[in-house]
């Protein structure tokens, strides 16, 4: 049977279509949802990501405030900027583009983001709430993966899900979300032995390792579902797509898979944050 | 080869011996570390646990304040009590005995505990910090399991660890701690299929399911390490001890395994909380 291509652009369109009316309702009340994006330094890829996110906002009537800081910025100066945005009632969401230059304490910066404005789901408090099934904005890519699975009616309960990667904003939260949806979850990483054998046991594979074509076709059980959260230089995912395609029953392409849904999720969280803020002030 | 019995009483003694001088130092400064224990209702097992914890405190020169509330207590009244303890500078740690009566929102009560006094590691914020490798007091039983592994020099890195159970204060945090120590971690639960086959692949098995003798001897790979965090009526663990003993290379008994180390960990966290509080006021 031909594998299903899990088309993220279709999922993203559905999310964004659902937001339009909500943005209009907010604007009718005089509230424009606003996402602040913070970019430190001039990494070209990061500049592109931030610009894409800003453009996606504006197409939907969400405003964005771009804060661009020089690469020499100190941790304290960055924390000051974040605190200003925390206190600004016009700002509903804050995104600090990862990675920041090496001299900055990125974790301290993430932790400084107000929980209610943490639309990118980067704080440990948000992670804790996500993992324990409480309210909050989960990290966008993990949430996007769950949305894709649901859009395509893929069963999660009781499935063996293997996540490759354990970063704080991807591998760990996607493991937590899958566990809360009743998958049996195995989290692998650089110290994992015989990763091929572990992946061969997976009904659902999430590649979140940041290495181009890391996941081999021979690792994939016939009929497995593959979600590729990797996005490496030259539009290459973490999965050897052509080799895995022949094994999988469904797979996300790169580009056009998880990426567009991640951005739509960020927009969705920003609108929700604005709605919550409006609800409080009513 | 005879399996090693992982004797928790020895590990607990070492922890407590290490605390004596620290408690004396604090008392010399006029500070007596103090743990507040909150018990809601009259469940006999819970009463016993709270009394054991209070007695363990007093043997070490740690004071404890017992708050015993009637089973009709509302969530709001419980939150009020917790807030009083949060604000009381004489109290360094707060333990809300689990479970509370069903009408109370236990999660809301846990979340109300001040992060700096969350010596039992029950808040989502503490869980998030634990999982992302930041400072904080991890849940006591998960931390006790790690301490036992380290005391007996058991390798964690690169091992396949299978955790059976996914509760917020046991299964989830012990999975997170093992992952951060470079185990490949699989978390199983009631919806897991073919759990016997999954456990057969484990180098380290953590039983945290709350069902007497749930883990069968036939599930255990020859030479595996077994940690039994269960404590069911009649001093019975979650592991079929006699059957598993013949397979394991090391195993915790019940009682005398994880339990005593859990209590020692609680004392250790309370002393550390008092030290941090003293450091702030200097």
TrEMBL record, chains A, B:
One GO BP? L-histidine biosynthetic process
Pathway involvement? One-carbon metabolism; tetrahydrofolate interconversion
The record places domain Tetrahydrofolate dehydrogenase/cyclohydrolase catalytic at 6-120
Q: State its Enzyme Commission number(s).
A: 1.5.1.5, 3.5.4.9
The GO terms this record gives for MF are: methenyltetrahydrofolate cyclohydrolase activity; methylenetetrahydrofolate dehydrogenase (NADP+) activity
Give the function comment from the record: Catalyzes the oxidation of 5,10-methylenetetrahydrofolate to 5,10-methenyltetrahydrofolate and then the hydrolysis of 5,10-methenyltetrahydrofolate to 10-formyltetrahydrofolate.
Q: Which UniProt keywords apply?
A: Amino-acid biosynthesis, Histidine biosynthesis, Hydrolase, Methionine biosynthesis, Multifunctional enzyme, NADP, One-carbon metabolism, Oxidoreductase, Purine biosynthesis
User: Subunit structure, briefly?
Assistant: Homodimer.
Name the family the entry cites. Answer: Belongs to the tetrahydrofolate dehydrogenase/cyclohydrolase family.
- InterPro entries this protein is in? Aminoacid_DH-like_N_sf, NAD(P)-bd_dom_sf, THF_DH/CycHdrlase, THF_DH/CycHdrlase_cat_dom, THF_DH/CycHdrlase_NAD-bd_dom
Question: Which Gene Ontology cellular component terms are annotated?
Answer: cytosol
The gene name reads folD
What the entry lists under PANTHER family is as follows: C-1-TETRAHYDROFOLATE SYNTHASE, CYTOPLASMIC, C-1-TETRAHYDROFOLATE SYNTHASE, CYTOPLASMIC-RELATED
Name the chain's protein. Answer: Bifunctional protein FolD
Residues noted as binding NADP(+) in the record, renumbered to the chain: 165-167
Tetrahydrofolate dehydrogenase/cyclohydrolase NAD(P)-binding domain location is: 139-277
Where on the tree of life does the source sit, at the highest rank? Answer: Bacteria
Reactions the enzyme catalyzes: (6R)-5,10-methylene-5,6,7,8-tetrahydrofolate + NADP(+) = (6R)-5,10-methenyltetrahydrofolate + NADPH; (6R)-5,10-methenyltetrahydrofolate + H2O = (6R)-10-formyltetrahydrofolate + H(+)
């Amino acid at each position: 049977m031909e594998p299903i291509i899990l088309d993220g652009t279709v999922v993203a369109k559905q999310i964004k279509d659902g937001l339009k009316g909500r943005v209009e309702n907010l604007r009718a009340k005089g509230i424009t949802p606003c996402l602040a994006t913070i970019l430190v330094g001039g990494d070209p890829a990061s500049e592109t990501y931030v610009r894409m996110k800003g453009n996606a906002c504006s197409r939907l009537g969400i405003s964005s405030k771009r804060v661009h800081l020089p690469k020499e910025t100190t941790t304290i100066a960055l924390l000051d900027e974040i605190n200003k945005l925390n206190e600004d009632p016009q700002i509903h969401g804050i995104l600090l583009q990862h990675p920041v230059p090496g001299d900055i304490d990125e974790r301290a910066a993430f932790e400084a983001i107000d929980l209610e404005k943490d639309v990118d789901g980067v704080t440990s408090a948000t992670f804790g709430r996500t993992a324990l099934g409480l309210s909050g904005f989960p990290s966008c890519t993990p949430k996007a993966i769950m949305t894709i699975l649901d859009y395509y009616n893929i069963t999660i309960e009781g499935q063996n899900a293997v996540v490759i990667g354990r970063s704080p904003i991807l591998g760990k939260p996607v493991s937590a979300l899958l566990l809360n949806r009743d998958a049996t979850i195995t989290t692998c990483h650089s110290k994992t032995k015989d990763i091929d054998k572990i992946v061969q046991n997976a009904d659902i594979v999430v590649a979140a390792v940041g290495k181009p074509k890391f996941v081999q076709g021979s690792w994939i059980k016939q009929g497995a579902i593959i979600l590729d959260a990797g996005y490496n230089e030259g539009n290459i995912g973490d999965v050897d797509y052509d080799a895995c395609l022949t094994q999988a029953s469904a797979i996300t392409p790169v580009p056009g898979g998880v990426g567009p849904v991640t951005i739509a999720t960020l927009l969705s969280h920003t609108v929700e944050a604005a709605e919550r803020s409006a609800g409080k002030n009513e």
